[in-house]
Amino acid sequence: MKNKDNDTEMNILWAAEEIFLEKGFTGAKTTEIAKLAGVNHAMLHYYFRTKEKLFEKVFTSKAEMLANSFTSVFDSKLSFFDKVKLAIATHFDFLIENPRLPLFLINEMLHNPLQRERAKAIITPNVLQLFSYVQENIDEEVKKGTIYPIQASDLILNIVSLNIFNIVLLRLASEDGKMIFGKTDREFLEERKQNTIRMVLNDLKK
Q: Cα torsion for 180, 181, 184, 189, to the nearest 10°?
C-alpha cells in the first residue's frame, strides 16, 4: 500500500511540474493537475491540500536537487579544477533536462511578488549551505597559490548565469528542424558548455 501511495504522490508531482511549467503558477488549475496525474481532485487535496503547498513541494525538490548536485561535486576527491569542470557540466546538464525551468522561474519572480518571496525562502537555506561548502574548497586552493581569491557566491553565480543564458538563448532562437548559428541544438549546447568551462577556469587560474 505504501508503494502505491508513493507512486500516486510522484504522479501528482510530475503532473504539477508539467502544468506549472506550461501555464505558470497563476494559470495552473489543480483540476488539470489531478486529471493529468490520473487521480481525482479529492485525492490531490488529500496529498497536498493546496496549490501553494504543491508548488512549494515541486520547487523545493528542484532547488534541493540542484544544490545537492553542486555539493556532491565539491565533496568529491577530485582536484579543485576538475570539481569546477564537473560542477559546470552537472548544472548545464540539469538545465538541459529541465529547459523550461529558467524562463518559468524568471517569469514567476518578475510578475508574482508572493512567489518571489516563497522561492527566496526555499532557495536561501540551500544556497547559503552550498556557498559555505564551496568557500572551504576555494580557501584551500588559494592557500596553495593556484587560483585568485574569489567568493563562492561569485563563482557559483558566474556558473549559473552563463549556463542559464545559453539554455534560454537556445529556447528563444532555436526552431524545430532548423539550426542555431549553423549548428544543431546538440552541437550548440556542447560547444557552449565547453566554452563556459574554459571561461570560468581561465578566470580562476593564476
A: -90
Tell me the C-alpha distance between 124 and 114, whole Å.
15
Closest CA relative to residue 97, chosen from 89, 87, 105, 86:
89
Q: Is the pLDDT of residue 64 over 80?
A: no
Burial of 169 (0-12, 13-18, 19+ CB in 10 A): middle
Number of H helices, E strands in the chain: 9, 0
The identity of residue 84, as a single letter, is: V
Site of grid cell 514567476: 108
Q: How confident is the model at residue 158 (pLDDT cuts 50, 70, 90)?
A: very high
Q: For residue 41, count other CB atoms closer than 10 A to its CB.
A: 13
CB 40 within 8 A of CB 33: no
**139 exposure class (CB count in 10 Å sphere: 0-12, 13-18, 19+):** exposed
Residue with cell 503532473: 15
DSSP assignments along 25-62, one per residue = HHH--HHHHHHHHTS-HHHHHHHHSSHHHHHHHHHHHH
